[in-house]
Amino acid sequence: MIKRPLEGIRVIGLEQYMAGPYCTMLLADAGAEVIKIERPKQGDPRRSMPPFIERDGVKKAAGFLGYNRNKKSLALDVSTSEGQEIFKDLAKTADVVVENLRPGSMKKLGLSYDDLKADNPQLIWATISGFGQLEGYLGPYAKRPTFDIVAEAMSGIMNLVGFKDKPPSWTIYGMADVYSGLTTAYGVMQALFMRSQTGEGQFVDSAMFDNMLSLNEAMITSYAAAGQIGERGVPKNVFPRGAFKTKNGYIALNVPDNRIWTRLCEVMGRAELADTPETRSGTERAANADTLQPIIEAWLADFDRDKVVDILNSAGVPTGPVYNAKEVFEDPHVKARGMLMPITDKEVGDTVFTRSPIHLSKAPELPKNSAPNLGADTEYVLAELLGYSKQKTEELLSKGVVDKD
């Protein structure tokens, strides 16, 4: 029977909010058994954050459902000595631990990678933090807690988003978290591949600041090569690039070279603009954007958005419509790619989430299990994975060390 790539791999997620849960969601989508550890009674803070899906008096947070599908939930208080022993026992059975708690939290509890690796030398431990935790690469900000917008700001991304006469702007909510989850999953995959060769686990250090800085490679290159400090809304080396208005909406247009510029000029009926002193390179076109932009906008003003998208693409000028959410849901290509994945929750019904983006030709389709209720798998973990007796489990439940759905 054909399996998903990570079937047989057990992942422990000591995680909250977005970055850690998104990482382990990707691993779960790939077939790993992911056991999400949450605080009894409270759970991941995103369980109580809007927007909510509600049916028959049951209310669940859509954001939590979206990033925690295909997982199991263990409600465990790791601040207690009994809870710490349970975590240690569980880590002995695991292939991977992913955690994104405040820097130093696990070390303070005696549950860090250094504390546990002797009992499981094959264990891969991935930590997502704001500024990195690997010895030898510790900077002055290592102990700071971080949210996504801080990583966007310090990586220079916010300084480039928006317009010159407006304050710096963030991109989309949680982008640094989601991208950090993705890069961490990539790091875990590398570590799993290395383990198949060496038999040894290792520490995977993922910093949100590093991840966003690597995403902003164009800024680094422009400054290193040409001393350029980008300004919001002011093109330096490429034009046209941005959103351009049509009769009934916007299109995204990018002209990175002279070949595509020539095609655009020809399709606009302005072939004479293809090669003038003001338009012979992206730098010249950017310097003369105030003159060229009105010409492009005047041509687009007479066109229906979707019609001009077809015209430009047919002429070899890549472009696309600027969609809102409703239009994304209606797009036939989105449907053909299966990117809107329906998942049924037994309590609140059907909801649509974004599919993990990678398709594999020789693997079955992604599993579609809804996010677990808090503590839904506590008894499974204690009894089946750890071999605890029913009496011991009941004692732990009565003390509040663990909880169950």
* Whole-angstrom Rg: 25 Å
In round numbers, the mean pLDDT is 95
Number of domains: 2
Would you identify the CATH architecture of the largest domain?
A: 3-Layer(aba) Sandwich
CATH class of the largest domain reads Alpha Beta
Written account of the structure:
With 405 residues, the protein is of the alpha/beta class. It has two domains: 10-216 and 336-403, Crotonobetainyl-coa:carnitine coa-transferase, domain 1 (Rossmann fold, 3-Layer(aba) Sandwich); 241-328, formyl-coa transferase, domain 3, CATH 3.30.1540.10. 39% of the residues lie in helices and 17% in strands. The protein contains 18 helices and 14 strands. The strands form four sheets. The chain has a seven-stranded mixed sheet with strand order 8-7-6-1-2-5-14, sandwiched between helices. Strand 9 (241-246) and strand 10 form a beta hairpin. Helix 8 (175-198) crosses helix 9. The chain starts with 9 loop residues before the first strand and ends with a strand. 33% of the residues are buried.
Characteristic key phrases:
alpha/beta, 2 domains, Rossmann fold, 405 residues, elongated, 14 strands, 18 helices, three-stranded antiparallel β-sheet, formyl-coa transferase, domain 3
Provide a short characterization of the protein structure.
The protein is α/β, with parallel strands linked by helices and 405 residues long. The protein has helices spanning 19-29, 62-67, 81-93, 105-108, 113-116, 148-154, 157-160, 175-198, 208-215, 217-226, 258-267, 282-287, 289-300, 305-314, 325-330, 332-337, 378-385, 390-399, and strands at 10-14, 33-38, 52-55, 58-61, 71-76, 96-99, 124-129, 203-207, 241-246, 249-254, 319-321, 340-345, 349-354, 402-403.
